[in-house]
């Protein structure tokens, strides 16, 4: 009975995600997603429900669509303003991260294999197992990592759901906040500034990967806990 329930859950999940992908394709999302202006036109067409559609798109981008949330956040900020776009995107990303983590945790490798290539799984799963919190926190901070795929793979590790959600809530929003701020014209970052931010971020990531375990151990020892 348990195996049958598992199979039906997996089948239902795949069918729902497939239907969602077909719906996005039929409504022209994938064509619109090739440019910011296309995304703006796509969202505007759903007025007065553009905010709801934007939220659902951001949720879909985490679960089924190969579109970075930062890109759609930028387009949303151009339409709705930085704060609205950021809050909607953050809520959608947290919910989407929770969903894919839970599906991977409940359905296991069979679910993961349908959405993560073997190459990416081999590249990231071992380091998530080994570094876990440190790697996820650092990877969530920087836009050059496949955050959504990392959330799926994290479901295969021993990290607890509450701990995972804390990492998502604390570390995933910063790239979204920058994208929303830039899109809403709150800040304007020149090319050289983006390069410096990228180099600084990469340095922090590498330092975190090398010394993060020591820092975690020191903090746990400071507050009287053992790892």
What does this entry look like structurally?
- By secondary structure, the protein is mostly helical.
- It is built from 13 helices and no strands.
- The longest helix is centred in the last third of the chain and has 32 residues, at 191-222.
- The protein is globular, with a radius of gyration of 19 Å.
- Mean pLDDT is 74; it is low at 223-227.
In short:
This protein has helices at 2-26, 29-32, 36-44, 50-63, 69-80, 82-107, 109-115, 118-131, 133-141, 147-154, 161-171, 173-183, 191-222. It is an all-alpha fold and 227 residues long.
Distance between the termini: 38 Å
Major pleated sheet: none
Number of strands: 0
Task: Give the overall shape.
Answer: globular
Q: β content, as a range?
A: under 5%
Unreliable residue runs? 223-227
Helix fraction?
Answer: over 70%
Protein structure class? mainly alpha
Helix and strand sequence: HHHHHHHHHHHHH
Helices, by number, come to 13
Mean pLDDT: 74
Based on CA atoms alone, the radius of gyration comes out at 19 Å
């Amino acid at each position: 009975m348990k195996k049958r329930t598992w199979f039906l859950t997996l089948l239902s999940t795949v069918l729902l995600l497939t239907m969602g992908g077909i719906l996005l394709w039929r409504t022209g999302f994938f064509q619109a997603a090739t440019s910011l202006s296309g995304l703006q036109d796509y969202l505007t067409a759903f007025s007065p429900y553009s905010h709801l559609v934007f939220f659902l798109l951001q949720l879909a981008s985490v679960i089924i669509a190969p579109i970075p949330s930062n890109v759609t956040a930028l387009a949303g900020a151009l339409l709705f303003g930085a704060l609205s776009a950021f809050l909607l995107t953050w809520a959608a990303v947290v919910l989407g991260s929770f969903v894919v983590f839970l599906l991977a945790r409940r359905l296991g490798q069979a679910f993961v294999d349908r959405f993560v290539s073997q190459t990416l799984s081999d590249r990231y799963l071992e380091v998530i197992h080994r570094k876990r919190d440190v790697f996820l926190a650092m990877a969530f901070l920087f836009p050059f990592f496949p955050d959504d795929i990392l959330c799926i793979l994290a479901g295969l590790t021993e990290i607890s759901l509450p701990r995972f959600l804390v990492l998502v809530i604390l570390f995933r929003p910063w790239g979204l906040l920058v994208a929303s701020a830039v899109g809403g014209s709150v800040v304007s970052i020149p090319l050289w500034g983006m390069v410096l931010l990228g180099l600084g971020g990469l340095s922090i990531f590498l330092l975190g990967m090398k010394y993060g375990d020591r820092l975690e151990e020191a903090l746990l020892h400071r507050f009287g806990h053992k790892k």
